[in-house]
Amino acid sequence: MFPYPLNTLKSLRRLSGRGPAAVLTAALLGLTAAGAAWSATPAAARTSSTVRTCTVSDLYLSMGRKEGAAGSLYWPIRFTNTSTTSCALRGYPGVSALDTAHHQTGPAATRSGRSYGTVTLAPAHSASAIARTTNGPIGGPCLRTGTYLRVYPPASHTATLVPAPWTICSAVFQVGPVNTQGAF
Questions:
Q1: What is the dihedral of CA 66, 67, 72, 78, to 10 degrees?
Q2: What percent of the chain has a predicted confidence (pLDDT) above 90?
C-alpha cells in the first residue's frame, strides 16, 4: 500500500507537468498530513502495548537442567531480566555450539517450527528456549563436544556465551522459541 493519502496522489498527478519542485512540495505536504493523522492515535493506546525489547545488557543467560526423552536431549536456555524495568522477548534465539577457542562446532541450531508470542519479563523473572539434539548417535555420528553455547536473544545482533558442554549428534540441533511454559 502506498503511504500517501489518495488526495495527495491525485495532486501529484496534476502537478507532474509543473516540474520537480512542485511535485516535491506536494509530496512533503501529503506526508505531513499523513504524519498528523498517524500521530493522532491516543497516547494510552501507544504506550500501553509497547514494552521495549530486551537487550543483552538486560539479560542474564544460564542453562537449566538437561533432560532426555524418546532419543532426544533437551536443555533449557534461561533468559532472566536483570534490569529494573520490564522488557519483552519474541521469537527464537540464535544458538550455536563453540569449542574452548570459541570456534563454532557444527551448524547453528535450526528452529523447531513452534508458534510463539511475545513474552514480557518483569525484573528478576525468567523465560526459556529449549535446545534439542539426539541422545547419542542415532542415525548419524556425534560432533566433538562444545564448551559454550553462543546465544543471540531474539531480535538481537549481540550474543552472549553461556558455559554449556553440548554435543550435536545425528545432525540434529534445534531450538524452540522463548516461552514461559518450558515448551520446545
A1: -50
A2: 67
